[in-house]
User: Which sequence fits this backbone?
């Protein structure tokens, strides 16, 4: 059978597969809208906290005002005891609490360094981090003010005192995702995983043995290499359109910063799409029915997100899991895309990931070819027997 | 009995009810099993090469979170940061020691990678902490070298206010406990949907439920739902046992409330699976819709990102996902050890899903019973 004919037949089968079209176009459009929804506000601000003020001095009131003025925090209640504060915490009315100890002002004046205790609900890490950060920086500011005030009292000019309060300063800056937005953190990586998972499902829905048997018929007349080639070409073209939509239109729409040029991204996409389509064909051959493709895609999505190294550092993931994850095209692609598009790395700096993707592309294509050969041999024994008899 | 046969003949369904979830639960936990990030590499470019700068670097290195990699040139260090080989870049200016001695307050610049937010935040706070300690030590040493002050007094001058920070309900700030205890239920819900759709799909003949439901629709559905519901509930119990006994995360609340929440969650998810199946009468499409609803549920749970900060649409959408109600119960029970009253709103939300399931089943009964009766009459 001519390759062009196989291509046309395959195209017709894809166009006639409603579940596949729904997954690719409906699914991708829906996720582009749905997935970023929770994170649109980017960073939690004005987190409510409770204050227990056992001091009642002017300094403690000043501290409370400073905390309230911090963009990260909002003092929503002043309570008398830690138990009351904890009750509010359980009721989710506040996310943290600040305890100003007794004799706070006196101890500061006498240089006894009193201890401010603060606590946050670590059931929610982002809220906890925000509260701790807000309280720590406010406490630091107050400490600096106290120091300067003391120096001025000791006769040092104010201008000098304000530079002297810390012998060495640290200016810590966020690089890349500079405003520390959650959308910028999650979306660029998750989009790669979404493309990866839906491609796995789509190829699976197309290439897994279907009840109607058109797949088996095609397998009988077409050579396995033709099938692998046609499928890779069709899905790669289809997904380069969808990927451009995701990385071009959607990222831009959400205002996610990006560095890489179009040609660089296309360069990376090619091996990624070939590798994913290859892997999907390998999985498809092993599936008993095409419906299972969706299940495989759904069930592997969360674990795939976790092993890609942007949520949890690769160095903290057990080596065995890392080795397994290296077989998933999403992982090198996520890392490469984040580095080149979010962190401004040059193409030569991500060469290792690029090579990795090409290796996977070749491996999975060959494997898919071998599996299809096996499937063909299994599907046509009767035919061979007939030929032998003749 | 019929259900058992279905299970025996369908290796996939069997796997999804037995070894597969266990494997997946353990795998997800294993990814995060180290719990805390330690020894994250940071690049330090030291332009000063003095005793003071070496001591500062020593302080950074002493932090359990950080591991210093000395780099000689800034461009190389920046490249390491871009490629993710190091998570932060610290530049110590020339004349650090000289300026410190002259009280000119030199500034050390640090750039941490906040594209990887968890790592970035930890690096930032570890750097601040190490730097704070070092700064205080330098100040104390200075004060003492000027003579006559007492150590305590000097410390008080250097650190006028001390901070004590506690992480409530997750004492060690264990990231595994935080993320895995939410991720596993999210995964479990996808599993419930998939199992139910496959189990119902096994009765689909000629793309229709008509024959199967024609007589005794109510009974057939009840048998199917309760058989698989029971197994899935057991799975949920196994999941909680694994989390609160196997991984030894604290469970402060009431087990009976938790088990009730699991049961209601199974029922609610079954209800959704049932409705999708009856609407589409097609496994692939029902799975697509169930996937669209449940696959992003981890993002909507409000564990990684606070619910209060979500825009209205996200807040509305999360109400439609049963597991977001369950996770609230799990957190209030396991972490806070709250009473049942605290969990009532979420339990009743799950119950509403269950009611939806009963009404859906009733509708089915009406829809499938009538043509059958007509068939008998004619």
Assistant:
């Amino acid at each position: 059978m001519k390759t062009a004919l196989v291509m046309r037949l395959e195209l017709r089968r894809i166009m006639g597969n409603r579940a596949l079209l729904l997954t690719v176009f409906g699914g991708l459009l829906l996720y582009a809208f749905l997935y970023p929804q929770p994170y649109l506000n980017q960073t939690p601000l004005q987190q409510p906290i409770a204050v227990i003020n056992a001091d009642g001095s002017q300094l403690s009131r000043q501290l409370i005002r400073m905390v309230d003025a911090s963009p990260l925090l909002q003092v929503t209640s002043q309570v008398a005891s830690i138990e009351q504060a904890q009750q509010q915490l359980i009721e989710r009315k506040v996310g943290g609490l600040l305890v100003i100890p007794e004799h706070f002002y006196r101890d500061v004046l006498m240089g006894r360094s009193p201890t401010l205790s603060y606590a946050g609900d670590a059931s929610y890490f982002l809220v906890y981090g925000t509260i701790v950060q807000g309280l720590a920086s406010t406490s630091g500011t107050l400490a600096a003010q106290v120091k300067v005030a003391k120096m001025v009292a000791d006769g040092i000019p104010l201008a000098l005192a304000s530079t002297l309060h810390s012998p060495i300063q640290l200016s810590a800056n966020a690089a890349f995702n500079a405003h520390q937005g959650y959308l910028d953190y999650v979306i660029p990586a998750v989009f790669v995983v979404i493309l990866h998972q839906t491609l796995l499902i789509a190829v699976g829905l197309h290439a897994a043995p279907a009840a109607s048997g058109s797949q088996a018929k095609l397998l009988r007349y077409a050579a396995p290499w033709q099938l692998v080639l046609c499928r890779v070409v069709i899905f790669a073209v289809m997904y380069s359109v969808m990927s451009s939509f995701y990385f071009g239109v959607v990222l831009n729409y959400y205002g996610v910063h990006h560095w890489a040029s179009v040609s660089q991204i296309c360069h990376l996409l090619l091996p990624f799409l070939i590798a994913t389509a290859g892997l999907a064909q390998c999985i498809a051959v092993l599936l008993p029915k095409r419906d299972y493709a969706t299940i495989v895609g759904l069930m592997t999505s969360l674990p795939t997100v976790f092993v890609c190294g942007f949520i949890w550092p690769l160095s903290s993931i057990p080596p065995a899991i890392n080795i397994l994850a290296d077989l998933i095209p999403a992982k090198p692609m996520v890392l490469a895309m984040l580095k080149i598009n979010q962190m401004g790395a040059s193409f030569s700096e991500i060469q290792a990931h690029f090579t990795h993707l090409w290796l996977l592309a070749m491996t999975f294509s060959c494997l898919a070819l071998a599996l299809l050969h096996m499937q063909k041999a299994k599907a046509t024994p009767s035919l061979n027997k007939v030929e032998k008899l003749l | 009995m019929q259900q058992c046969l279905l299970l025996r003949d369908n290796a996939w369904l069997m796997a999804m009810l037995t070894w597969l979830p266990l494997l997946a639960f353990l795998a997800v936990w294993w990814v995060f099993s180290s719990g805390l990030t330690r020894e994250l590499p940071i690049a330090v470019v030291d332009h000063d090469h003095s005793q003071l700068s070496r001591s500062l670097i020593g302080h950074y290195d002493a932090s359990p979170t950080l591991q210093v990699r000395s780099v000689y040139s800034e461009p190389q260090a920046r490249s390491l940061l871009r490629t993710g080989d190091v998570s932060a870049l610290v530049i110590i200016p020339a004349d650090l020691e000289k300026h410190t001695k002259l009280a000119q307050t030199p500034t050390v610049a640090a750039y941490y990678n906040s594209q990887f937010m968890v790592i970035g935040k930890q690096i930032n706070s570890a750097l601040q902490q190490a730097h704070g300690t070092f700064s205080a030590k330098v100040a104390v040493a200075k004060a003492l070298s000027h003579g006559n002050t007492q150590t305590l007094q000097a410390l008080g001058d250097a650190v006028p206010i001390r901070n004590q920070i506690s992480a409530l309900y997750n004492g060690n700030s264990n990231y595994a406990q935080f993320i895995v205890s939410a991720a596993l239920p999210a995964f479990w819900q996808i599993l419930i949907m998939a199992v139910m759709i496959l189990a119902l799909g096994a009765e689909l003949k000629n793309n229709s439920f008509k024959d199967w439901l024609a007589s005794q629709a109510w009974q057939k559905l009840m048998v199917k739902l309760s058989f698989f519901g029971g197994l899935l509930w057991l799975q949920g119990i196994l999941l909680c046992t694994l989390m609160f006994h196997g991984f030894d995360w604290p469970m402060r609340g009431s087990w009976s409330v938790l088990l009730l929440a699991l049961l209601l969650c199974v029922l609610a998810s079954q209800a959704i699976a049932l409705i999708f199946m009856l609407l589409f009468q097609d496994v692939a499409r029902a799975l697509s819709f169930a996937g669209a609803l449940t696959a992003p549920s981890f993002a909507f749970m409000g564990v990684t990102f606070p619910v209060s900060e979500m825009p209205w649409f996200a807040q509305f959408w999360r109400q439609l996902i049963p597991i977001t109600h369950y996770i609230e119960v799990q957190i209030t029970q396991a972490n806070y050890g709250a009473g049942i009253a605290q969990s009532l709103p979420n339990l009743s939300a799950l119950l509403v899903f269950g009611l939806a399931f009963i009404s859906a089943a009733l509708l089915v009964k009406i829809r499938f019973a009538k043509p059958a009766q007509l068939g008998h009459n004619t």
In short: Chain A touches chain B through 109 residues (CB under 8 Å).
